[in-house]
Fold:
Amino acid sequence: MNRYTKRTFALETLMIAVGIVFAFPVYVLVNLAIRQPSDTSSPIRPTMSPTFANFTGAWREAGLGGALINSVLVTVVSVTIVLAVSALAAYPLARSAARWSRTTFLVIMLGLVLPFQLASLPLYQTVRDLGLLGSVWSLVLFYSGLQVPFTTFLYVGFLRALPRDFEEAASIDGATPFTTFRYVVLPMLKPITVTALVLNAVAVWNDFFTPLLYLSGSDQQTVPVAVAGFVGQFVSDWNLIFAALIISIIPVLAVYLALQRSIINGFAGGLKG
Amino acid sequence: MTPPWWFTLPALLLFAFVVLIPSGRGVYYAFTDWDGLDPDFAFIGLRNFTDMLGDEDAVQAIWHTVLIAVAITVIQNGIGLLLALGVNSMIKTRNLLRVLLFAPAVVTPIVTAYLWRNLLGPDGAVNAVLGPWGRDWLGDPGLALWMIVVVVVWQFAGYSMVIFLAGLQSIPREIYEAAAIDGTGALRRFWSIVRPLLAPAITINLMLSIIGGIKLFDQVYALTGGGPGHATDTISTLIYKDAFTLGEFGYSIALAVVLTIIVAIASAAQYTFLSRNEKAAS
Structure:
């Protein structure tokens, strides 16, 4: 079972073939992004005279610089808020068996079932009346609330499995509840915080529906809406569009490749939560 | 000593402002003819819902939504499980393949969908590979819906794989080896030993893919825009179109209520079925 047999070799060959099929779209993506518009040969033929012009053109036209800054800002601020408020809320929710605690937990868990589509239209009206339509700060507010149920769910599940001994020792020593939370509970939550951070950051960064609704027609864009706007504008100029797609995914792929172990474990980590 | 209740306040306020209160107002608007702007609107009872039954586009969209969700759930998890079994072996490329196969799952769905719109186009790479077997994948009403499923599965099969893999790796090696020594066949070993121990991974995977499938929006928006005609419209794309291009906010929110009910039914069914399954396994 632990030896590299003929069957292992057959499996290896098969899996590599599967890997190539999965990676094929990426080959075409790069192949067309470096191609001159005048080159109309088959999209799978390797590009012989590559050019970088599509990238400079896409960068100039798509406003991706500003969109990247907005996406980073929205993701960092809203994920920080979500993690902070959810961890704080999870502490009493996991530790108290009182009726208010169980009821509050159930109400928040209702959010796991409610699709955002239901809240999105009434919110549209509220945001318009508040004059926040077209502002990235409205997105920060939304994600801070939208991601609460899932994040709280992860924290409460994790915290319930942890012993109370350290917290009790701290409170006997005269620590206030907040001090206990900050210096005793929060450090113990680190493993699940990594999971929650990864899942929330990916969800917020990639979200398209929310900014499509609330940022449409404004000059403040996040990466997904900037890309969609660019495709709408340059309809069939695929060399340029593909260059823009590559620019938009480079930051994500760079972070993924640098932190692949934590990120993959983060995604799988919900399993233990 | 239990921590004070007000620790829950910041989370609760944000949740109430963004989700709970607007959802509650949404349910109310579903029974009105609100157009999104006019503060004067009428309470019209169940008319939005009865209109929906006579609206061919809406009925079709509900059907597409269910079909897409089921197809994605079955195919994505089937492939994800096979990939996990393949990677959870002695092959030398297992780490490389794990990183490669999972990569699409972190990339923005709208971006991968635009990539695929070109790949599946009449002059796209897929047809270039298939030659005489090429088709108008996204322009054919009978095929377009399945292409959306293909794109989603390509992107998220690696996600299912990673969760199955975590489940597989939590199974102690000795259990396999004991069964192998006993002469149990590979299929039998999988069905009676691996499958029950994988129950938590199966639960999470099915939950994620079915709810993701029901709410699907980005891929449909980018690949087909709901077309050709309305052949690939889902509830989510119809909500968007009815509200923002037709100004029928009340009707659109009624569709969102239907979406909520479908998500709730799917969650409840899975919860009942899978918790029984997990109990039987332990």
Notes: The radius of gyration of chain B is 23 Å. Chain B touches chain A through 98 residues (CB under 8 Å). Chain B has a mean pLDDT of 90.
